[in-house]
Amino acid sequence: MRVLVAMSGGVDSAVAAARLVADGHDVTGVHLALSKNPASYRSGARGCCSLEDSHDARRVADKLDIPFYVWDFAEEFREAVVDDFIAEYRAGRTPNPCLRCNEKIKFAAVLDRGLALGFDAVATGHYADLRRHGDGSVTLHRAADAAKDQSYVLGMLTQDQLRRCVFPLFDVEKPVVRAEAQALGFGVAKKPDSHDICFIADGDTQGFLARHLDDAPGPIVDDSGEVLGEHRGTHRYTVGQRKGLDLRVPAPTGEPRYVLRIEPASRTVVVGSRDDLAVTELTGIRTTWTGSSVEGPWRGQAQYRAHGTPQYATIEAVDGGLRVSLDEPAHGVAPGQTVVVYDGDRLVGSAVIAGAR
């Protein structure tokens, strides 16, 4: 099988490529250039898309003696991920740019180009378990390493896309991956995991947003409408936030206040108690099913953060969207986040959260 491996420059994609080579596949490595100026992206241990990372990926490809290319997706990345990130915050929502990158770049643009060039599949170093069945269908499951499971960020993939994907690290834990990399002589064997947002080089998300969005002040109010303070831009806040409110009026009970919702049209941030944050029903839009749609209602689990704890829920497809009724209240659920629904360890689908109550 001809496999195109997306090599980020980290240890996971390096070992994914090595495993495919060892299994006898015809492997080609590709690194994605996501900025016209690579120095503008985070470098070192905390990055995933920097110039340094591309060099690390090339060195691994040389060790494996496989072809290696750098593909320029800077324009696509800017439009689909960076511009979307800014627009979502402008609208008072909280996006997940890494999930958006998977959806629009790694498993759409790269897959489309790879198939056009004659490759059979695209592989990555994601920790997720893809199971193939006799009827040609595939199902996506959580990885063997629960601590590293990344199925959540793959929840937007369709059945057609999943059929063309390979995740070689589905059955191993991270220490084993590092040991394999060490045995193969990869310089990335001890390279720390990437995290944070790659296109915000200094890690200052608020500063990045302030350079792209209006820092216009507005009121911070409670649910009764009483003005408690003033903010310096709604993009500086997200639902569930407690720190940095700098309120002039303390709560009558002395308890901390949290951001309950953001109203960008009136430039208002509404705050309240932790109890006021509790929600038991989520509504989702832009639903994606990894297989056939499930009308429901059915019993499953819902996860609304990449590293969140799944919660038992009743799930139902409604009017092209998704309704998730949680068994227990959740706190800090923000519009713009993605809710991913599971049946046991099998990922069933996902939706972008439009509302919670």
Automatic annotation (TrEMBL):
One annotated GO biological process: tRNA wobble position uridine thiolation
One CC-aspect GO term: cytoplasm
Residues holding ATP: A6, M7, S8, G9, G10, V11, D12, S13, L32, G125
EC number per UniProt: 2.8.1.13
Principal localisation: cytoplasm
MF annotations from Gene Ontology: ATP binding; tRNA binding; tRNA-uridine 2-sulfurtransferase activity
Function text: Catalyzes the 2-thiolation of uridine at the wobble position (U34) of tRNA, leading to the formation of s(2)U34.
Name of protein: tRNA-specific 2-thiouridylase MnmA
Gene assigned in the entry: mnmA
